[in-house]
Amino acid sequence: MLRYMFKKMLLAMQQRYAYDVRYQQDILHSDLTAFLKFSGFQTMASHRGDLPAGPLYAARIRAIIYDDCGPCSQLVANMALEAGLSQALVRAIIEQDFAALPADIALVVQFTERVLAHDPQADALRDNILALWGAKGLITLGFAISAYRVYPALKYSLGYGKACSRIQLNDVSVVPQRSQNPAS
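RESULT FIELD:
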């Protein structure tokens, strides 16, 4: 019964986002206990706290692009659009177009990139994040940054990793930009 319910949920996700859920189906089929633990992890990954959608998706998008520029990145971009972010804003996050980003979202993009690069300059940006959203906001961003890296790692581990591809934002195709040196 439990497997049946999860299968239905996965199929609904696949249909809603045109996303390949085979890696999750394989986990569910092979090891129900492992799938339940994965589901628990997804609870952490979906945490949004009181953070506005723009900064939250900026962290999620940049974290997923850091390790994947294929279907996972497309999925998160679609979710950002669904959450009400404009196509222009999502594109600016993907392309790291700091001139087109509001200051709070540019801050999160820079912070995310520096955290992922283990750059000590993240410390100064962390203080700005704390000033804007407090400890709860910082924790939410920390969950987004760390959790969204798990999906590509898990998919690649299980043999479902995909080569880099463009991200489709409605009628616009965008090439994910990776940064080793985020703008200050």
